[in-house]
## 1
Amino acid sequence: NTEKNKQWLQEYVDNWVTFFKKQTDTGKVADYIPKLEEADPDALGITIIGKGGMQIRSGDLNHSFSIQSISKVLSFIVACIDRGITYILQRVDVEPTGEAFNSIMHLQINNPKRPFNPLVNSGAITVSSLLNGNTSDEKLEPLFNLMEKIIGYRPEIDVDVYVSERDTSMRNRAIGYYLLEEGYLESDLGVTLETYFKQCSINITTDDLARIGLVLSNDGIHPDTEEIIIPKNVARIAKSLMLTCGMYDASGKFASYVGIPAKSGVSGGILAVVPPRVRNNDLPFLDGCGIGVFGPALDKQGNSVAGIKLLRHIANSWDMSVF
Ligand code: GLN
């Protein structure tokens, strides 16, 4: 019966991927980082991994892509593990901005004064400065270790993407100087930005994203080894941040129409977490799973056009919303 169910689910997903792949015309590949412009706008791939090793994989799966903003979730998690939740939350808030991820509009208005949340650039750059270590490589070591534990191999930085972003990102430098002026940064601005650009350039696949999603769904515990990889209280804050701030200034719509914690990146990736729900008895495999999506054509907010359509359709068909 499980086998039959799986085959049935696989066929559904294959059909939906084929359908939504043709619906990217309203989107555009990110071009503000020159290297990202080379992506195929019509690519669409998805991996769903449940507990017990059950997997559904469909579409363009042999693309690897830079993790971009999805790394903000992981650096926040690492910072909380290494420095303590209280310490981090005194320095970055947990409120959505309703503005673009790299907006400078909101920088002066939060009270108490600190960046609004770790998933917009001002908060993420601050978090990069709070990571332990004096160099970007030292700072990123625990992040690589965390990823390795989850995805089973040590991911690599795409040097071309890194250089491309480093040499063009004037906005992030402007944000960095503002943070420096306000005294938010704990490490040298150059090292902080290098850390941020490098973490955004880590190469991953939809399979990797689905594995990360599954660990978050499972309250930070690795589903195979039972090892606690992320403390439950850290995983919980990460998921609430994803739900309220993870899809940029479209987070409210995503929460309403899809209803699961997710984080997108400008290379077209989406990390999504489907929490366990007793109601899904007829599809037990989907009861607590991770989803990774890749579709580089983006909407105005910077989210994958086809990726959002696909997730919305899947979440509604299979009743995945947490609400
Ligand atoms: N590297 C990107 C930037 O800071 C990450 C942004 C994103 O994925 N939204 O501009």
## 2
Amino acid sequence: EEIEKGGYDHFMLKEIYEQPKAIQDTYRGRLLADKGIVKMSGIDQNLEKFLNANRIIIVACGTSWHAGLVAEYIFEDMARIPVEVEYASEFRYRNPVITEKDVLIAISQSGETADTLAAIKLAKEKGAFVFGVCNVVGSSIARETHAGAYTHAGPEIGVASTKAFTTQITVLTLIALKLAQEKGTLSQSKYHEYLAELEAVPTKVEKALLSNALVEEISETYKDSSNCLYLGRGYNFPVALEGALKLKEISYIHAEGYPAAEMKHGPIALIDEHMPVVVIATKKGHYEKVVSNIQEIKSRKGRIIAIVTEGDKAVKELADHVIEVPETSEGLSPLLTTIPLQLLSYHIAVMRGCNVDQPRNLAKSVTVE
Ligand code: G6P
């Protein structure tokens, strides 16, 4: 096992650090930025299904569901296709309206999650076209779907999902870009900018990983907290949910993710000097609005850990701690902002003496309902 961990203390940390390569493996052969094309056989062979779809329904559980939420923003923004994101467990039991004009995308790292599998079977019975985004090759979900795209993240051992999440987002971004180009919903300059930026993501993830020492230092300050709030807007709202999930999964600190603007409808009541608030406040994506959310937290003495774009000034003046990530296109920012949140949960869990790779009560793959 020590050899498998490749010199890292835990699989989770190894997998966090594998992300630049995993993302590259995911787009290799698919993203041809110099030619301006995205090639994905599962989409190419079923293009009409996607182009004629009334809507896309995404089903998933856990972290994969968060990747689905990011995809909702990406698909609607880039390809102008309506998207609904569903917990597989709710979808399958609520007699959902599904038609032959619907495309269902199931996202699953393991490809074995029982609820997701059941949702797929239901959608197939109703005549929908079902597409899988899985990591494990030959898994049940990969076999049960009509077509699909693998994430190629390599084996993920840590129960808390890290590289599976960022590679799922990578695959879904490729699909959205491909459909956007077919439909003409993105300007050519925007489309090419996205291709080039996506190609640059692995290098930028490397840079984001350089925050590790700083994140470790910040973790020391907050390791004994009982609660933590995560806020983000737009593309980074699902990242806030995922950051909170990571913290609760492995450190057992109660954490909640919220859309920043919803703070005033509830969570603001919880803010005092004992409440750390992690705010994703990157440039682009409603930056000024997030800055005013930060001001509201500060005036209530909340402790602010902000994820900002390199070179940021305004947030630096307000926050207790700032962690920088490189600048990128708005739609790709979750691939970078997620990184320090993964590291934060990792370090806090280690400092609390938790079993990082195998947290209590959780399983890597949930094959029961
Ligand atoms: C479990 C795992 C999570 C994972 C979820 C969905 O809860 O602990 O890390 O996100 O299942 O799993 P899947 O394999 O379908 O992505």
